[in-house]
Amino acid sequence: MGAAGVWYVMVTALLSAAAEKRCPPVLYKFLQISLWTLMGLVVLVVCMSRVYMAAHFPHQVIAGVFTGILVAEVVSREKGIYSASMKKYFYMTLFLTSFAVVFYLLLKAVAVDLLWTIAKAQKWCIRADWVHLDSTPFASLLRNMGTLFGLGLGLHSPLYTETKKKKTSFKIGCIIVSLFLLYLLDGRTFSSENLTTYYLLSFGKSAVALLIPTTLVPWALCGIFKGKREDKNL
Fold first, then answer.
1. Rounded CA separation 48/234 (Å)
2. Residue among 210, 189, 186 at smallest CA distance from 198
3. Over its length of 234 residues, how does the chain's per-residue pLDDT go in tens digits?
4. How far is CA 213 from CA 34, 66, 71, 174, in A?
5. CA dist list (Å): 36 to 43, 49, 65
6. Burial of 202 by CB count in 10 Å (0-12 exposed, 13-18 middle, 19+ buried)?
7. What are the transmembrane regions (predicted)?
């Protein structure tokens, strides 16, 4: 679902940019076929790997692809994401997180274990260390809440507003550096011995993942280029 949604957004964005630049019809058609083919191959490999690892059934990965594309299409058309105030982002994150925590505690109080699937998976999986806590619904929800909060902070940062005015070369540089840092961040894992600490760190990691491309990287590159210009003037 995630891979399909992300690739769909990237492909449609590149095709829209090519259309705005009035790309020649033949070149645009070639670009269109190439990008959609590349997306199809990547999604196919991801789906096959999930089925091979027995992480999902075939019908689940197929449904995930269509759901991811549908979510990406709906969200890309929703412009309220950019116009919503920071207060709305904060209250929405607080409400959804609080609701999830309270609901989790209530179920735990009546002896309902939401992590029962972990024990089953560890029992039947060939290697128990392949089963991760971050695949549980509660952990996924907290990651999404961290992403929502980080998006709100990033979009309302003055640095994000300044970045939109920068040249294309600067934006490409931000993308390259951001992808590298996000790759390093993605490899960072946390111990699940203490669940509270694990969930808090997962929330923070997801928030930082959105702050890196929207705020932190543009701020760092602006500082570097500004320092170089001052040195040249001296």
1. 58
2. 189
3. 788 888 998 899 888 888 888 888 888 899 999 999 999 999 999 999 888 876 677 888 898 899 989 988 888 887 777 677 888 888 888 888 888 888 888 888 888 777 777 777 777 776 767 677 776 777 888 888 898 889 888 888 777 666 666 677 777 888 899 999 999 998 888 877 787 888 888 889 999 999 998 888 888 888 787 766 655 555
4. 26, 27, 22, 7
5. 10, 20, 14
6. buried
7. 35-53, 89-107, 138-156, 168-185, 197-225
Residue 21 phi/psi, 5-degree rounding, is -80, 5
DSSP alpha helix (H) spans, 187-216: 195-211
To the nearest 5 percent, what fractions of the chain are helix, strand and coil?
80, 0, 20
In contact, 174 and 163? CB cutoff 8 Å:
yes
In degrees rounded to 5, what are phi and psi of residue 54? 65, 30
**134-172 burial, b for 16+ CB within 10 Å, e for fewer?**
bebebbebbbbbbbbbbbbbbbbbebbeebeeeeeeeee
Closest CA to 93 of 204, 212, 214: 204
Place of tokens 């449904």: 63
Spatial separation of the C-alpha atoms in residues 95 and 75, rounded to whole Å:
20
Q: Where are the beta strands (DSSP E) in the chain?
A: none
